Structures are given as C-alpha cells and as structure tokens.
Amino acid sequence: MNNFNMKLINSIILLLALSINGHAKTLTIAIDLSGSNPLLQHKNFAYVAAKYMSEQIATLKTRDIVSLQTFGSRGDASNLINYKFTVSRRLRANAIATKIAKFIQSLPNQKELAQSSTNLIAWLEFNDSLDCANQGQVVVITDGLESSEYVDAKSFLEGKSKFPKADVDLKGCEITFYGLGAGLPARYVKTIRNAWKKWVAESGASFTAVIR
C-alpha cells in the first residue's frame, strides 16, 4: 500500500474518531409557568432572564441543540410546548437567542398561562430528553417552589415537609435554577436552595442556583 493510500485511510479514521467523540451539546431551557414564578408577573425579571439565556445560547457551536420546554401543572396542555433548534450556518446561535429572548419577555403579558401547581420534580424525573449522557445543560427559569402531590409548598417552607428522594439518574447533567427564591424572604430562599441542592445531588447531576 502506497503512502498516499495510507495517509487517506489515516485521515478517514481521524474524521470518524472526531465524529464519534464530537457529540453535540443539548441546552434545555425549562420555563416554570406556575403562578408563583415572578417571570409571569414582572417585566424586569423577564428582561434579565432573557438576557441571561441569550448569553448561555451565545456559547453554543454548530450542531448544538436548544430545547425550549415548559412545566407547571401536570394536566395543563400548555406544558406540551417543546421547541427544538439546531445551531447551523443557516440558523446561528444569536438568531436562536433572539427567538428565545422574545418568548421569555412576552410571558408577563400572558398571565392567563399561570398555573396552580409546580411539578418540577416530576418534570425532571420523567424527562428523557435532557441528554445527560452527553453532558447536557439544563437551565430552569423558576422560583424553585415545588407545589405538587409530592410536596405542599406552604408546609415545605415552614419546615414541616421535605422533598422525596430523587428517583432518576441525571448524572452528567449540569442543572441551573435561574431566579430561585425570587420575591421570597431570605430564610425561605435558603430552605428552597438547600432542598434542591440535596435532591439534585441524589440524582447525580451538578447544581447551581442563580438567586435574584
């Protein structure tokens, strides 16, 4: 076999190796549509949340995926929203960021979307699209106040109830709660942050709380 063929074969092997190892990154943006989330009430909060998400999307590269999802009450059809955008030459990251920012900033004008419960635990446990195996990034725009069949919000804030143990494997994912505890007294913010820090650790993921 001549040197040209050997170089060609080596180049093909290298390209195959790069394609196998170069997994696209998935950024999941989850928006809490429960009535307690300040995002649905205050334009200022929506503005800074949109700015934060734009900055996250701007770091993405070609082939990376942005998934926009919503959650709140389990039985509400509004939570079937699941838009996916793939960064490409035709659809740049900044164009996707603009679309997402406009959606986020429109929410304070849509108070009819506000829902009566927050099923964040269920959303995390039943979601099979977070791509944790490929180090998926998850940003949840939420106050973090779970109010569901698992936890009564008032009882939880008063220290009378706790989160159930995490029943999901999210190892590899990086989970950020943007706006955790927004609008609540400091002691409640600490309660919420500590509960989620423990729950996410049990799931195997890493956790960051961005408190506003």
Please describe what this structure looks like.
Helix 2 runs antiparallel to helix 3. The chain is globular. With 212 residues, it is of the alpha/beta class. The longest helix has 19 residues, at 3-21. Mean pLDDT is 87; it is low at 8-21. The protein has helices at 3-21, 43-58, 93-106, 120-126, 153-157, 186-203; strands spanning 26-32, 65-71, 82-86, 137-141, 174-178, 206-210. Helix 6 (186-203) links the parallel strand 5 and strand 6. Helix content is 37%, strand content 16%. The protein has a six-stranded mixed β-sheet with strand order 3-2-1-4-5-6, sandwiched between helices.
Q: Report how far the terminal alpha carbons are from each other.
A: 65 Å
Based on CA atoms alone, the radius of gyration comes out at: 20 Å
Give the helix/strand class.
alpha/beta
Q: Describe the sheet with the most strands.
A: 6 strands, mixed
What is the strand arrangement across the widest sheet? 3-2-1-4-5-6
How many helices? 6
* Inertia-based shape: globular
- Which sequence of SSEs, written as H and E, runs from N to C? HEHEEHHEHEHE
- Average pLDDT reading: 87
State the helicity in percent bands: 25-40%
| Contiguous runs where pLDDT drops below 50 for at least 5 residues | 8-21
Oligomerization state: single chain
Strand content is: 15-25%
Number of strands: 6
